[in-house]
Amino acid sequence: MLRSMTGFGEARTQTETVGVSVEVRALNNRYLKLTVRGSEPYPLYESELEKIVRRHIRRGTLHIHIRVDRSSPAAVPPLNIAALADYVRQIRTACDEAGTPEFVAPLLAGALALPGVAPEPRGSTSLPEDEWPIVEQTLEAALAKVNAMRHDEGQAMAAELLGYHRAIADQLASLRELLPGVVSEYRQRLLERVRQAVAEAGVVVSAESIIREVALFADRTDVSEEVTRLTSHLEQLAELVRKGDEAGRKLEFVIQEMGREANTIGSKAGDVAISRQVFEIKATLEKLRELVLNIE
Fold first, then answer.
1. Fewest CB within 10 A of the end CB: N or C in the chain?
2. Which fold has domain 7-73+132-148?
3. What's the pLDDT score for residue 243?
4. Phi/psi at 245 (5° precision)
């Protein structure tokens, strides 16, 4: 069945040591694109997260927000006690020798910031082994909800696409009824002009000339092949919609080809009534094109 490329899903997993919540928002895109936000270090691991996403989704822009609440406090990095004691001793000695003991306290207040006393904080750049399975599980649960929404919306879109298919089929049937009358009307108009020319100027036109002119017109305006191809594309469109299974790009191509055939029919037919039918077909094709852009 068809699936839309838009959807939303969220999931949460709580354990004794960690709480993980994941939100996924999906929008349409010709390709798969991820944007990851949230708790460190997960925004740095788009490639790992993409492997999980590809199990569920093939196309679309996905905005993923991962939040991890860790209940166990992070370990406090140890101070370098020996270095701190050495700094304190040197500060006091320097102030005593300079005769400025009042500077000891202010200088000691900044001792922790001196090089080598406290280790510099470092952000985690590796996936926490104990958290990753929980994050993966929660992300897959959120993606399952996204796909459920995309599937429901895809069913509604399939019904709408088949409605447009029926509309084009009806317009094409009306166009076929008009085609036989194009040549006969041209023949009638040509005969009228010949009669008028004969009456006004006494020009003699042979029957063979009229027949040849009508035959040439019929050949120039013959759109039977284009109508046949357009009908074939229309049947293919219905088949793709009913089959589904990542049909978005194929539908885009079929609709593009249908538009080309419709343009050719309109330019070759040379009839106002047919041009109107072609206009209606192209208007419906435009609605199809806009809808298909949001199908996976």
1. N
2. Ribosomal Protein S5; domain 2 (3.30.230)
3. 81
4. 60, 70
How far apart, in whole angstroms, are the C-alpha atoms of residue 255 and residue 161?
A: 11
Instruction: Determine the pLDDT at residue 191.
Output: 52
Torsion angles phi and psi, residue 89, rounded to 5: -60, -45
**Residue 37, Cβ neighbours under 10 Å: how many?**
12
135 CA to centre of own chain:
25
Buried b (16+ CB within 10 A) or exposed e, 97-127: eeeeeeeeeebeeeeeeeeebbeeeeeeeee
* pLDDT of res. 198: 54
Q: Where are the domains of the chain?
A: 7-73+132-148, 81-113, 152-292
Q: Identify which of 56, 63, 64, 34 has the alpha carbon closest to the alpha carbon of residue 135.
A: 64
Distance (Å, whole) CA 68 – CA 225: 62
Q: 10 is written with which tokens?
A: 């969220």
Which tens digit of pLDDT belongs to each residue from 207-245? 565 566 555 555 555 677 788 888 899 999 888 888 876
Residues of the chain with confidence (pLDDT) below 50: 122-123
Residue 24 pairs in a beta bridge with 9, 64
